[in-house]
Amino acid sequence: MANNRILLKISGEMLCETGGFGIDPAHVQDLAQQIQSGLEQGDIQLAMVCGGGNFLRGSQIAGDEIGRITGDNMGMLATIMNALAIQSALERLGVETRVLSAIPVNDLAEPFIRRRALRHLEKKRVVLLAGGTGNPYFTTDTTAALRALQIRAAVLAKGTKVDGVYSDDPETNPDAELYDELSFLDVLQKRLKIMDSTAVSLCMDNSLPINVFNMKNHGNVIKFLAGERLGTMVT
């Protein structure tokens, strides 16, 4: 395991206004600039998984007209679009980047091959892991946990819009407690919705720590990549 290797999971909503749709170039550029600055300050190997919720979520559109499998496949295609947007913004800043997709799109991205991903990371390229797991019924949270284990990341970081893991929704309950540290069992038993239970169980079974921090605070991505402790650590 490379102690400086991180897998950063972000939601697709980080690429647009809260509640918005699609991609806002200003948001993508801001994220890219923070990543560039953070990488310059720390000796980090960075892989990323981005959700597709800014376009659609397969589980939400699934119904009688569009089946769950088709909906999930559409969601996985949305993650590829997001990865390409982030790649373009990073490369404008001179950051070497590769998109590796679990779904073959040969003109746009390399196929996900574990050894190829490791080689790119060793060459200090930012590796964007797109296309989910390539299978329906698995969220991008589970994808992030799986890929983090495959690339032997030291930590799975999840960038959110709140400061970490709370005892309740801080947007509706001002008395919600912010946790500094938690165990995996705490997360599962208290049903704290930081990630789906499949992702949390996968991390727990393989002793992969999860760090949840606020990405909406400008500069937090730089601080995180530079090694500053932020948010909640789940171990």
Question: What order do the SSEs take from the amino end to the carboxyl end, as H and E?
Answer: EHEHHEEHEHEEEEHHEHE
CATH architecture: 3-Layer(aba) Sandwich
The gross shape turns out to be globular
What number of domains?
Answer: 1
Query: What order do the strands of the largest sheet run in, or round the barrel if closed?
Result: 4-3-5-2-1-6-10-11-9
CATH superfamily membership: Acetylglutamate kinase-like
Strand content: 15-25%
Can you summarize the main beta sheet? 9 strands, mixed
> What number is the mean pLDDT?
94
Helix coverage percent? 25-40%
Model description:
The structure is a single chain. The longest helix has 25 residues. The mean pLDDT is 94. Helix content is 37%, strand content 19%. α1 links the parallel β1 and β2. The chain is built from eight helices and eleven strands. The chain has 235 residues and is of the alpha/beta class. It has one domain: Carbamate kinase, CATH 3.40.1160. The strands form two sheets. A nine-stranded mixed β-sheet has the order 4-3-5-2-1-6-10-11-9, with helices on both faces. It has a two-stranded antiparallel ribbon with strand order 7-8.
Short description:
With 235 residues, this protein is of the alpha/beta class. The chain has one domain (5-234): Acetylglutamate kinase-like (Carbamate kinase, 3-Layer(aba) Sandwich). The protein has 8 helices and 11 strands.
